[in-house]
Design brief:
Number of helices: 9
Structural class: alpha+beta
Number of strands: 5
Distance between the termini: 73 Å
Helix content: 40-55%
CATH class of the largest domain: Alpha Beta
Number of domains: 2
Strand order of the largest sheet: 2-1-3-4-5
């Protein structure tokens, strides 16, 4: 029989080493010289450091278990997540570096993997794990929208669009297609453009609405600059889509522009 795998402090098997830095953390060990003999001092190890951060992990877990997320700062919540993704390192400096770089938890989870990997301690596997968690969160928000009338759940629509688009590095043009009860039929990214421009073709927008038997749509796009203020081009394009859709029985409820720190509604601003 083979040797049993080592276990972590929760009794779970430790994962095999990968790019997450297991070997990089191990101190070099040198054999004792013949003069030192059997009583030579042991090489310096990091056992004290390991005991420190493992004890810290246990304390954070207890605080979260007993008091919920309100008992923890954002960097501590991120630490809790990173415990599982990077099991053999002190993750507090990594969590703080991520928040310093991307500003918020939403910014961390929404960041592209290539940028996440610029943070020391984040490799390809951990970056993809963070994106997986972000995707699951987006799907959860979307599933909640499907059972509701969107016009009476406007705050959830904004929350979903913000989670999906606010941290994108390029402009996306997204369409929410609704049925006659204003329930969500489909949510599609129709175009992806550059950092400050996305080509939009009104006829293609309406063609897709008719294919899905949608009677109404909500237009959404993001501004990677962070400022959601609508441009003249945004307003003109929206009016063109409205004029194209109306004769075919498709209503444009709104055009929402998403920025990192907020959003703008053309309907709310009385621009359409």
């Amino acid at each position: 029989m083979g040797a049993k795998p080592p276990f972590d402090t929760d009794g779970d098997p430790l994962e095999p080493p990968d790019e997450r830095g297991f070997f990089a953390d191990q101190p070099a060990r040198s054999a004792p010289s013949s003069r030192q003999g059997r009583f030579a001092p042991k090489p310096e190890t990091r056992d004290d450091d390991a005991a420190h951060y493992l004890g810290h992990r246990d304390r954070l877990r207890r605080r979260y278990r007993d008091n919920g997320d309100t008992a923890l700062a954002d960097y501590e919540l991120l630490e809790l997540l990173l415990f599982r993704l990077i099991p053999r390192r002190d993750t507090k400096p990594i969590a703080k570096a991520l928040l310093d770089r991307f500003g918020t938890l939403s910014g961390v989870l929404g960041a592209p993997p290539s940028l996440l990997q610029e943070i020391k301690g984040i490799g390809d596997t951990v970056a993809l794990d963070l994106k997986l968690i972000s995707t699951i969160a987006h799907r959860m928000l979307k599933s909640e929208l499907r059972s509701k009338t969107l016009l009476s759940s406007w705050s959830q629509v904004i929350e979903y669009c913000h989670a999906a688009m606010a941290n994108e590095m390029r402009e996306q043009f997204r369409i929410l297609f609704l049925d006659k009860r204003n329930a969500l039929i489909a949510d599609e990214v129709q175009q992806t453009g550059t950092i400050d421009h996305t080509p939009v073709y009104p006829r293609e927008v309406i063609k897709r609405a008719l294919e899905l038997s949608a009677t109404a749509i909500i237009l959404v796009h993001n501004h990677p600059s962070g400022d959601p203020t609508p441009s003249r081009a945004d307003i003109d394009m929206t009016k063109t889509i409205i004029d194209t859709a109306k004769p075919l029985g498709v209503t444009v409820h709104d055009h929402i522009i998403i920025g990192r720190d907020g959003h703008a509604s053309l309907r709310g601003l009385r621009l359409i």
